[in-house]
């Protein structure tokens, strides 16, 4: 019956039963039985053709049974189909899972790297041993140790109770397979807490039976879960215990540190030590050295200048006065390469200290003496720059000790008569100038050192001293190495020297000293003892050649100190008055030139400029998003326009498949050059905006132009150092590639923007091409008449070539960008008729801008036609009008938009802050570089303020010293 229905009426009864909704067929109506027939009305299209509208279809009883059988068989077949589909789908899913699993990387190599259970156990044991040894080594405060033991005892009690509960719970459930797990647990407990009895109790519990039933399996799973929970709890307790121990150890260390600090504070007095008179005087000299390095006008305060020939013993004399071997020494080579100012003062401890340093060197310890000499040598070598042998930079040092005479001495490099090959060419003259410079101070005490072991005729220093102090009112002569002179020289000659009758110079006093036996390891005490023994037993002394007051370094120190303070008292008031007058003159000049400004030195001005520069960096964050995007868009197109025309648009326009060539070129561009150029544009935009902010600041009413050089230098240096983040290029590459994949203009507004963008870009290129042609062809006829100009010979020749090339373009408006050989030949022959000889390359050079102008004009005409062609483009009617140029420039416009947006976010979120850090780093470097400040902060205002500030400081220190000196009287 089903076949009859299917064949006669094109209808499948099974489909009618299974899919009535899809076929729009009503279900069979078996409710109305009339004489063994079934009346059924069908509204499907198949039955409308076979049965008249409103008609009936009579089926017998037998046919009715066959229909029911067919229906049941269809239903069963449906179940088989569903079941088969499920099984087949499961098999397919399982197969795909196996394929996916096989595609995963092989992770078995991790088994060789991670330790097994046995290795973990051994590691736990070793860790316990190390913990024990560390605990025994570290000394812990007894109070903290007692507190820690109490905490540990509480945790042990708590843990034992929890462990007992777990054991009792495990005792009710027997399982043989749990033995291994509880074995590991017992080992962990015994290692961490040392509970051996618990291990025995656990082992007695675990006597297992075989798990055969579901009930025993559930018990086994329950015990396993309890075991895991117990292990987790033990680990948590162990971690908590370890953290508490670390906390206690840290508190112990802090307490010990505080105790040491309190102990040190109790030893160190908090009372501020009053400066000694000589220290105050030394500070005045330091200020004067910084104020006037030439000492030509103001710095006439007394000091003791130690001068002498090289290796004459002047450094040894100074060490004898200071009672410490504080200077480096060598075997005949020049060791003193820079002036060393030594301030001697009395103090309870024999120590030395450099100016500007907090470290004190204990001069009673040989190790610290060696470190002091090494530091002096390092500072001397550091002061010698530019290939020089000697330096004018002063090394200031203070030496304090019991019984030292208070004075300021300056040790100078020894005067030489011959230079060695390792010296600079101007070394001899530099030493002479430096020595004269210090001795020319009218209040300087000259300590003239003469080697007694050499012939007097070999002396260089005596002539130099006699030139600077011809009357000898401030010179003290010292004859060294008298022990050697006694053996070599005639006693009468030594007597003449000490009487001032041998050398053509005068002096206040003459002294003879012995500065050692030439041994480097001799101490000052041994040298002093040797000197006293020598003069006690010397024939010179016994015979009356040398007077008692003329010998020993001690008498020399007393004499020099007495003369030093006498000159200080005589000159200090005069110098104070001179600086007072200088200060008054400078203040008057400042009021006349800068009446409304405060005297700000370079350091203060630099800090003010630093604040203004950092404020400009902060203002970068106030720039609006629209301004950033407009600026970035302009910078991007400025960077990219030439590449777009030369490498993408023009090559694609000359090919047969414009769109294909465009896609290839754009992808290559986005993968290589575009991201880097975009980052470069972003950095230039950031720099341009920052410079614009600085330029705006210059136009403000309160702008101070004295900072302009400094700001420009800081910005330039920061720009040189700053680089864009590397990951920004990769991020831009992804964004740009995705954007360029879109080839469909979305709406009319974007189409109009693209047309406008294309027209403006082509017009800019056309204007540039016209300018090139003007330079090649020279002025036009109108310009020649109006401006009285004429063309050069080359320009005239190119005009002839242009006229011939224009004919080619006019004859073929769709000409290719390359001239053929025949066309080149024709042009040359036509020019020859006009007596114009040119080469083929010359014609090609002229053809290139002419063709480009023609091509760009044609592009503009197509752009005018495409203005209202969006409807045709959206309908796909590209064969009516070709607007591929517009689509290309739309794609470029879109990539510029997304790039500008990404760069703006990068600038605001990252680059502005990184630039801020770079600027701060540059400012910090400049703040420590005095030469940089002097170079960048210039002008009369700065120099006058610096001088005024320095004079005030010197005057204040002078007045402070004078008050202390008067009180001492």
Question: How is this structure best described in words?
Answer:
The chain has 969 residues and is mainly alpha-helical. The protein has a 9-stranded mixed β-sheet with strand order 6-5-7-4-8-3-9-10-11, sandwiched between helices.
The largest sheet is:
9 strands, mixed
| Computed structural class | mainly alpha
Number of strands: 11
User: Roughly how many Å is the radius of gyration?
Assistant: 52 Å
What is the molecular shape?
extended
Strand order of the largest sheet: 6-5-7-4-8-3-9-10-11
The multimeric state of the shown protein is: single chain
Give short descriptive properties of this protein.
nine-stranded mixed β-sheet; 969 residues; extended; 11 strands; disordered N terminus; mainly alpha; single chain; two-stranded antiparallel ribbon
Question: Quick summary of this structure?
Answer:
The chain is mainly alpha-helical.
Topology:
Blueprint: H1 2-9, H2 13-18, H3 20-23, E1 33-34, E2 37-38, H4 45-50, H5 61-103, H6 109-113, H7 117-137, H8 142-171, H9 179-193, H10 196-205, H11 214-267, H12 277-291, E3 303-308, H13 314-322, E4 340-346, E5 351-354, E6 361-362, H14 366-383, E7 395-401, E8 407-411, H15 427-439, E9 444-451, H16 461-468, E10 475-480, H17 482-488, H18 491-498, E11 509-512, H19 524-537, H20 539-542, H21 553-593, H22 602-620, H23 625-653, H24 658-671, H25 673-698, H26 708-721, H27 726-740, H28 748-777, H29 781-787, H30 793-811, H31 821-833, H32 840-866, H33 870-874, H34 884-927, H35 930-936, H36 940-968
Parallel strand pairs: 3-8, 3-9, 4-7, 9-10, 10-11
Antiparallel strand pairs: 1-2, 4-8, 5-6, 5-7
Helix pairs in contact: 7-9, 8-10, 8-11, 9-10, 9-11, 12-36, 21-36, 22-25, 22-34, 23-24, 23-25, 23-34, 24-27, 25-26, 25-27, 25-34, 26-34, 27-34, 28-32, 28-34, 30-31, 30-32
């Amino acid at each position: 019956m089903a076949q009859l229905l299917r064949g006669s009426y094109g209808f499948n009864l099974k489909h009618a039963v299974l899919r009535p909704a899809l076929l729009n067929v009503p279900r069979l109506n078996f409710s109305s039985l009339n004489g063994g027939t079934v009346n059924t009305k069908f509204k499907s299209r198949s039955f409308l053709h076979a049965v008249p509208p409103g008609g009936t279809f009579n089926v017998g009883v037998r046919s009715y049974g066959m229909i029911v059988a067919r229906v049941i068989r269809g239903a069963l077949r449906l179940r088989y189909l569903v079941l088969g589909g499920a099984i087949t789908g499961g098999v397919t899913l399982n197969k795909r899972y196996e394929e996916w699993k096989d595609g995963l990387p092989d992770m078995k190599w991790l088994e060789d790297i991670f330790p097994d259970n046995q290795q973990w156990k051994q590691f736990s044991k070793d860790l316990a041993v190390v913990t024990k040894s560390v605990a025994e080594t570290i000394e812990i405060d007894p109070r903290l140790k007692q507190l820690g033991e109490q905490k540990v005892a509480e945790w042990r009690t708590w843990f034992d109770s929890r462990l007992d509960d777990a054991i009792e719970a495990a005792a009710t459930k027997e399982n043989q397979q749990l033995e291994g797990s509880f074995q590991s647990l017992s080992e962990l407990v015994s290692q961490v807490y040392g509970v051996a009895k618990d291990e025995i109790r656990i082992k007695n519990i675990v006597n297992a039976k075989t798990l055969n039933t579901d009930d025993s399996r559930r018990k086994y799973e329950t015990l396993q879960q309890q075991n895991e929970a117990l292990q987790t709890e033990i680990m948590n307790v162990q971690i908590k215990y370890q953290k508490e121990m670390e906390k206690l150890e840290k508190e112990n260390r802090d307490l010990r540190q505080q105790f040491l600090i309190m102990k040190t504070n109790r030893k160190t007095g908090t009372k501020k030590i009053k400066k000694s008179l000589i220290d105050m005087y030394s500070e005045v000299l330091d200020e004067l050295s910084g104020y006037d390095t030439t000492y030509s006008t103001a710095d006439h305060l007394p000091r003791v200048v130690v001068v002498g020939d090289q290796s004459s013993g002047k450094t040894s004399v100074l060490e004898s006065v200071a009672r410490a071997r504080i200077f480096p020494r060598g075997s005949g080579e020049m060791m003193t390469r820079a002036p060393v100012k030594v301030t001697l003062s009395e103090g309870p401890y024999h120590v030395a200290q450099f100016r500007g340093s907090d470290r004190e060197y204990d001069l009673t310890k040989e190790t610290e003496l060696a470190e002091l000499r090494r530091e002096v040598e390092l500072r001397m070598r550091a002061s010698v720059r530019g290939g020089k042998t000697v330096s004018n930079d002063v090394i200031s040092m203070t030496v304090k000790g019991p019984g030292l005479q208070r004075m300021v001495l300056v040790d100078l490099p020894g005067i030489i008569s011959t230079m060695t090959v390792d010296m600079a060419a101007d070394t001899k003259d530099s030493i002479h100038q430096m020595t004269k410079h210090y001795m020319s101070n009218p209040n300087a005490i000259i300590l003239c050192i003469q080697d007694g072991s050499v012939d007097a005729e070999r002396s260089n220093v005596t002539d130099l001293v006699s030139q600077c102090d011809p009357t000898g009112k401030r010179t003290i002569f010292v004859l060294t190495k008298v022990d050697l002179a006694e053996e070599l020289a005639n006693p009468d000659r030594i007597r003449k020297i000490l009487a001032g009758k041998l050398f053509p110079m005068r002096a206040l006093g003459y002294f003879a000293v012995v500065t050692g036996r030439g041994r480097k390891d001799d101490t000052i005490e041994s040298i002093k003892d040797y000197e006293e023994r020598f003069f006690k037993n010397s024939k010179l002394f016994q015979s009356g050649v040398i007077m008692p007051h003329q010998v020993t370094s001690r008498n020399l120190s007393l004499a020099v100190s007495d003369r030093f303070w006498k000159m200080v008292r005589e000159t200090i008031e005069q110098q104070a008055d001179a600086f007072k007058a200088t200060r008054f003159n400078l203040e008057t000049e400042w009021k006349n030139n800068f009446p409304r400004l405060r005297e700000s030195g370079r350091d203060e001005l630099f800090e003010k400029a630093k604040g203004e520069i950092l404020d400009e960096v902060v203002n970068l964050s106030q720039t609006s998003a629209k301004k950033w995007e407009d600026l970035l868009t302009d910078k991007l197109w400025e960077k990219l326009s030439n590449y777009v025309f030369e490498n993408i648009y023009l090559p694609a326009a000359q090919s047969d498949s414009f769109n294909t060539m465009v896609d290839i070129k754009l992808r290559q561009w986005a993968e290589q050059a575009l991201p880097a150029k975009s980052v470069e544009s972003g950095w230039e935009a950031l720099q341009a905006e920052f410079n614009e902010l600085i330029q705006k600041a210059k136009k403000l009413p309160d702008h101070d132009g004295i900072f302009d050089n400094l700001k420009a230098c800081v910005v330039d240096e920061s720009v040189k150092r700053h680089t864009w983040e590397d990951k920004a290029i990769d991020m831009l590459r992804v964004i740009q590639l995705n954007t360029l994949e879109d080839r469909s203009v979305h709406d009319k507004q974007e189409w109009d923007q693209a047309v406008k963008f294309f027209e403006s870009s082509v017009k800019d290129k056309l204007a540039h091409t016209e300018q090139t042609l003007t330079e090649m062809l020279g002025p036009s006829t109108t310009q020649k008449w109006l401006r009285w100009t004429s063309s050069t010979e080359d320009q005239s020749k190119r005009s002839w070539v242009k006229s011939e090339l224009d004919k080619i373009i006019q004859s073929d408006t769709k000409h290719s960008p390359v001239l053929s050989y025949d066309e080149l030949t024709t042009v040359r022959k036509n020019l020859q008729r006009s007596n114009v000889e040119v080469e083929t390359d010359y014609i090609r050079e002229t053809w290139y801008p002419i063709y480009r102008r023609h091509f760009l004009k044609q592009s503009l005409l197509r752009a005018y036609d495409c203005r209202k062609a969006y409807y045709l483009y959206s309908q796909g009617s590209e064969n009516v009008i070709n607007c591929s140029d517009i689509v290309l420039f739309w794609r470029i416009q879109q990539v510029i938009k997304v790039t500008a947006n990404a760069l703006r976010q990068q600038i605001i979120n990252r680059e502005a802050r990184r630039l801020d850090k770079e600027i701060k780093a540059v400012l910090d470097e400049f703040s420590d570089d005095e030469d940089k400040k002097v170079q960048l902060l210039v002008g009369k205002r700065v120099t006058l303020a610096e001088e005024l500030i320095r004079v005030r400081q010197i005057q204040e220190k002078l007045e402070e010293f004078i008050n202390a000196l008067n009180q001492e009287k």
